[in-house]
Amino acid sequence: MSGSPDEEKLEELRQKKMEQLQDRAESQQGGEEQEAARQQAEAQKKAVLRQHLTDDARKRLNTVKMSKPQFGEQVERQVVSLARSGRIQGKIDDEKMKQLLKELKPDSKSFDIQRR
């Protein structure tokens, strides 16, 4: 009789472990699908940017992204949304990119220090 409860516990532990392994396998599949979707969206974004930016404008945007990644991403999203809405005529050159960066640039905080 003492063997029976131990076998039940052992079987219960096996069942729990099997469920955990199945859950982990399912979550990895979901993660792979999300990664594939993210990569596809990134490729589409790069294609839109390549289509609507001149080489100089792309270089400037890459430089901004290297120094300020969040701001660079914001500018990329703005350019992509403008392109998708059809509000970009022709290509954005370096001068237009400078203007766009100035418009989107976060307000710099200035501090006035006064000595007494």
UniProtKB/TrEMBL annotation:
Presence of the UniProt keyword Iron-sulfur in the record: no
The UniProt keywords, alphabetically, are:
DNA-binding
Where is the signal peptide, in residue numbers? none
Q: Where is the composition biased (Low complexity)?
A: 27-42
Which residue intervals are annotated with compositional bias (Basic and acidic residues) in the record?
11-26
Region Disordered: start-end pairs: 1-48
Pfam families according to UniProt: dsDNA_bind
Q: Which GO terms describe its cellular component?
A: cytosol
Q: Which HAMAP family does its entry note?
A: dsDNA_bind
Q: What is this protein called?
A: DNA-binding protein C484_17901
Give the organism the record lists. Answer: Natrialba taiwanensis DSM 12281
